[in-house]
Design goal:
This protein is mostly helical and about 140 residues long. About 75% of the residues lie in helices and about 0% in strands. It is elongated, with a radius of gyration of 19 Å. The protein starts with a helix and ends with a helix.
Length: about 140
């Protein structure tokens, strides 16, 4: 498990202003189990993560848990850069503009519903830009 994943549970708890002992009691787990989650020794169950989300008031934690602890999340969920609301909105606006800039290519590719060999590079760029826009939109939703 990478360093970012090791710390998402700790970050959520600290953002909630709780000690490990307080959080463990509310989560109905041992302090040792929480330490193991926060250091990456073990991955918490989905049920525990759901309780963390509710207790810490951290909906972003569910997304990050799936993104970092499951193969499906690692492969298919867009990356998020969660920050303050103003920065998240500005990033989304930038990504929307990037997608607007490739709109004509999207229309051209979509007209026949087939991505032919001459359109593959344009399609790769389009899907990259759309993925970045989706990540930026989720970052707005999860902004702190």
């Amino acid at each position: 498990m990478n360093k970012r994943c090791e710390n998402i549970y700790k970050t959520a708890r600290k953002n909630a202003g709780m000690t490990q002992e307080e959080a463990a009691g509310l989560l109905f787990i041992s302090s040792r189990a929480l330490t193991d989650y926060e250091t990456g020794r073990t991955i918490p169950s989905d049920e525990t993560v759901c309780r963390m989300i509710e207790i810490y008031h951290a909906p972003w934690l569910g997304y990050q848990h799936l993104k970092q602890s499951t193969e499906v999340g690692r492969r298919f969920l867009p990356d998020l850069n969660i920050s303050d609301l103003a920065r998240s909105i500005l990033k989304l606006q930038k990504e929307i503009k990037d997608v607007e800039n490739i709109n004509n290519d999207l229309i051209e590719i979509g007209c026949d519903g087939i991505i032919d060999d001459t359109e593959k590079d344009k399609w790769a760029l389009a899907t990259k830009e759309i993925d970045e826009m989706a990540g930026a939109a989720l970052s707005v939703i999860f902004a702190r």
